[in-house]
């Protein structure tokens, strides 16, 4: 009897050990837009021909995405890239790469060029997706991962993109929030998912939607269930669950030339060996009236008004200095410069420092010539969401882009398919 008990506990211990090892082995890796090296700059991923486009392509079409980035260096590195299929929450899917990719899983970055006639030396790298060496076979979320020396743990950068197979139609409208306790500060996004061909046994669970404002993931709305289901229409008509602060129009500055001050530039100087640009001192906008103007909803474009032939290799880098005056230092969190210029991330690389002498927050960023949007955000300690309302203000009239993604996984499905996508604009009603 004692032998049987001992044998039982021995077997149980082995099972627990194996299960523990399996859980460690299958711990998901969360793929987010990230740059892992300070010398990597100006990361962009967009549809060829439109720098401001969402990185979304339709499965089986000729549309291509292009990834561009610079490394501040004078020699070419051995960079490699791969594509990782992810679920709706950006964890790696439980399917093999050879199943969802044609070609090779790991491929060298072969398109590169040295900078020319710039004060800052760099190498420009580019990758087009899909290509003859690597192409997605399934729809869904994908992470484009760049690493060095064929070592996937030696990460350089990660960029998210989307491959859609349009099986549902998404229609929606952005309006002033129906119930707004803050007197007209919020925007409500009502939308419908119209099923055209999918077999939905349990529509509330088979379809997952993600709602984003200006491509931001930190404040994205997840896990919305349809409020009504009738015929083949899933209706997401809520009063609270689908509401965002309207925010404010993004600030902007123009550094497309080194010869004179662009818009919202106070000063440009060449302090050997680099150019230094000072943005006009900003101000808190939370208590100011809304002022409409055209901007790019937080994005940037690489451009030059100087005489250049190739924007990728001849646009120079400049140290751009930001200054936000404030009566006193904010406690319990950080103030960050935020937007596509910081990868929509608020971290130590774009955290502003408090200057007691000048009574304000300061930050310097090395940026390539172009036209930039940005905002100031406050990030409470430990928070994952950046708050722009306290520093920028919020208004329901603000022009914003909203992205809606619809994912599908049937009962036998092993991965999340992206079956619908649309981009709504709050100014179009």
Walk me through what this model shows.
This protein has 429 residues and is mainly beta. A hairpin with a 2-residue loop joins strand 11 (140-148) and strand 12 (151-164). It contains five helices and 30 strands. The protein starts with a helix and ends with a strand. The chain folds into three domains: 34-164, Immunoglobulin-like, CATH 2.60.40; 168-245 and 399-425, Sandwich (Immunoglobulin-like); 251-392, no CATH class. It is globular and about 65 Å long.
Largest sheet: 6 strands, mixed
Which class of secondary structure composition applies to the elements?
Answer: mainly beta
Portion in beta strands = 35-45%
Tally of extended strands? Answer: 30
Question: How many helix segments?
Answer: 5
Low-confidence stretches: 1-27
Average pLDDT, to the nearest integer?
A: 91
- Tally of individual domains: 3
Computed over alpha carbons, the radius of gyration is 24 Å
Termini distance?
Answer: 78 Å
How helix-rich are the residues, as a percent range? Answer: under 10%
Q: Which of globular, elongated, flat, extended, rod-shaped describes the shape?
A: globular
List keywords for this structure.
429 residues; mainly beta; Immunoglobulin-like; 3 domains; 6-stranded mixed beta sheet; 5-stranded antiparallel beta sheet; 5 helices; 30 strands; 43% strand
Secondary structure: elements and pairs:
Layout: H1 2-25, E1 34-35, E2 40-47, E3 56-58, E4 65-71, E5 79-86, H2 97-100, E6 101-103, E7 107-108, E8 111-114, E9 123-129, E10 134-136, E11 140-148, E12 151-164, E13 168-176, E14 186-195, H3 203-206, E15 207-213, E16 221-222, E17 228-230, E18 233-236, E19 243-245, E20 251-254, E21 265-271, E22 274-279, E23 300-302, H4 311-314, E24 317-325, E25 333-338, E26 353-355, E27 360-368, E28 370-380, H5 389-392, E29 401-408, E30 417-425
Parallel strand pairs: 3-12, 22-24
Antiparallel strand pairs: 1-12, 2-4, 4-9, 5-7, 5-11, 6-10, 8-9, 11-12, 13-14, 14-18, 14-19, 15-16, 15-29, 17-18, 20-28, 21-22, 23-28, 24-27, 25-28, 26-27, 29-30
